Amino acid sequence: MSETLAARLDCFENPNPERDYTIRIRIPEFTCLCPKTGQPDFATLHIEYVANQRCVELKSLKLYIVAFRDQGAFHEAVTNRILNDLVSICEPRFMRLSADFEVRGGIYTTIVAEHRASGWEATTPVSLS
After folding, report:
1. Are 32 and 72 in contact (CB under 8 A)?
2. Is 34 a catalytic residue?
């Protein structure tokens, strides 16, 4: 299934590949199904990444995310699958996916998965006080 879904993702050339800059994407309407009960699970996805040569094209990302609506998946599995697919298509220097799932059975779940390209180190932020 992941290969089929990943085929929906597209990228475009990074307009500034010489610079580390952060791209943040918030997806407030992620939906998948609980693999045990078939009940819907809802989450807000937060993607943060430092592009290398390619950036994720947003319309293709939207279509990719919507495709999970009818798929059964544990929170941990679907978060890591999305990260893996995004990393495979755009090969970022760094990417973090945080999935904040809504309450199920009185429990909220947040899954955070990260990827770092070999040899990449984050720059030190500038503090202007």
Report:
1. yes
2. yes
